[in-house]
Amino acid sequence: MKAIVQNKFDDASVLSYSDVEIPKIGDKECLIKVAYTSVNYADIKARNGNKGKGNFPLILGLDAAGTIVEANANSPFSIGDRVIAFPKNGSYAEYVVANEKLVFKIPDSLSFEQAAAMPTVSILSYILLHEIGQIKNTDTIVIHSAAGGVGSMLVQLAKLSGVQKIIGTVGNIEKENYVKNLGADVVCTYETFVEEVLKQTNNQGANIIFDSVAGDVTRMSLDCLAFYGTLVQFGNSSGRAGTFKTSDVHSSCRNIKGFSLGTTRKHNPERLAPVAKRVIEIFESKQITLPIAQIFNLSDAAKAHELIESRNYEGKVLLKV
């Protein structure tokens, strides 16, 4: 089969379109013929060597949409089932193996393109909003990197849930209309968001802030987080750790919560099935859609990575396998 393989950490040029053996399934696993896979910022970090050690040759990719082509006799899945999945050894490939706990059936009415765009960002966003952040209708929330894949989903799911005020931040204000069309009430840049949040909340601050950027953005977020508010930290796309002092939280009764979908896939995969069921229903009913920025052929994975790194895109980037 064809797959995108890398043998060292470096820029996008290390991604090689190669022939590799079709993986074999073990107990409680399925073999899936991939239709599309998505490109996530975590893939960039993994390719660069900023996300754990490399077990080369390495195949990147977190999620996939496709069709079951092999399953065990007692499997809940059958050959021909249309599914989304979190494969165990990357998804930039024609065939992938996944643990049955990380495979979820999708309806015929949901296209593979839309299905491939959703697994990581929609399941993560739903958990962040409803389980970690525990949003309420009366909240004012801030969503950093609101034009990215997770940000696009957070904005739409928050709007669907009736959140009172949604403030999105972007690196380039040219993305303002895109984020507002998703449902944000206010869009501002990282340079101005503290001032804007305080203005929008009568100097009270936001109730919940969703931070995947870290670095200076984390510190600045605490400058506009309300008493009893929650900072939800789930990434560091800036490449730098965010910092805070214990006095930033205890005297103001504020919380800082962290969440990782990768950790949850590894240590508590059962937690994802009910969330996957809910977000698939939301997509099937077309209550929300995830804008697709661009689709590349699998062989052009390097170009897809370059687009992600440029940050000059809105929505999700896919690979057609």
TrEMBL record:
It comes from Oceanobacillus luteolus. Transmembrane segments: none annotated. Keywords: NADP, Oxidoreductase. It holds the Pfam family ADH_N. Residues 10-319 form the Enoyl reductase (ER) domain. The keyword DNA damage does not apply. InterPro entries: ADH-like_C, ADH-like_N, ER, GroES-like_sf, NAD(P)-bd_dom_sf. This is Zinc-binding alcohol dehydrogenase family protein.
